[in-house]
Amino acid sequence: MTKPIFSRILLKLSGEVLAGEKGFGLDPIVANKLASEIKSVKDLGVNIGIVIGGGNIIRGELAEVQGMDRVSADYLGMLATIINSITLQDALEKNNCETRTLSALSISQLAEPYIRRRAIRHLEKNRVIILAGGSGNPYFSTDTAAVLRAIEIESEVIIKGTKVDGVYDKDPIKNNDAIKFDSISYKKVFDKDLKVMDMTAITMAKENNLPIIVYDVHHDDGLKKILTGEKIGTYVGN
């Protein structure tokens, strides 16, 4: 069996991934496919933490534009991440993958409270952990929450699954001449204002020397390929 290049990762997924082709809500088939791939990586001996967004249900900033108080909207977004986390937990456990969801918001009927030492202990017991509720604070994105949690659980890398196969100099969906980067520095991400993650998240990653790999979450066995050393997606680092 090929030895993985990382022993502990933080997988960041957008909520839209769980919506499938519908673009909103939850698609159990997509959740099951994701769970199967995560299980295959866990079987390589990799510790896995997961942060998933809530954009398939509600986006705090969009709700604000539509007239809702920003703080209230952001808390609804955090609740959406909990819905997605429990959905993915269910799919993982149906794939015989022992999983624990830990939430930054208190919701004891569904998830354990997020406590750093408890999260690390679950990883040491070879459980997948899903870190829900964002950072527990309004005005911070799930990108920022993902970097924060990755640092806390001592992850070696953030692997971000998106709808595109890496980082481009402009939106590849809207621009046919967009150029993909195989690797890029944090500084160039800042200078070119590239939408890898929000700038708070990128700043935290840079300050803590935490690399980010961006890949197409729909790439067959993409996560497993990254962890066995195949060069797919875009590497972001110092």
Query: What oligomerization state is this entry in?
Result: single chain
Query: What is the overall silhouette?
Result: globular
CATH topology: Carbamate kinase
Mean of all residue-level pLDDT scores = 93
Classify the secondary structure makeup into a structural class.
alpha/beta
Largest sheet: 9 strands, mixed
CATH-derived architecture:
3-Layer(aba) Sandwich
Share of helix, binned: 25-40%
Strand order of the largest sheet: 4-3-5-2-1-6-10-11-9
* Beta-strand segment tally: 11
Radius of gyration: 17 Å
Low-confidence stretches: none
- CATH evolutionary superfamily: Acetylglutamate kinase-like
Give the DSSP E fraction (strand runs of 2 or more residues).
Answer: 15-25%
Distance between the termini: 31 Å
Number of helices: 9
The CATH class is identified as: Alpha Beta
Can you describe what's shown?
It is built from nine helices and eleven strands. By secondary structure, the protein is of the alpha/beta class. The protein has one domain: 3-Layer(aba) Sandwich (Carbamate kinase), CATH 3.40.1160.10. The strands form two sheets. The protein has a nine-stranded mixed beta sheet, with helices on both faces. Helix 2 packs across helix 4 and helix 6 (142-152) runs parallel beside helix 8 (199-207). The longest helix is centred in the middle third of the chain and has 25 residues, at 70-94. The chain is globular. The chain starts with 7 loop residues before the first strand and ends with a strand. The mean pLDDT is 93.
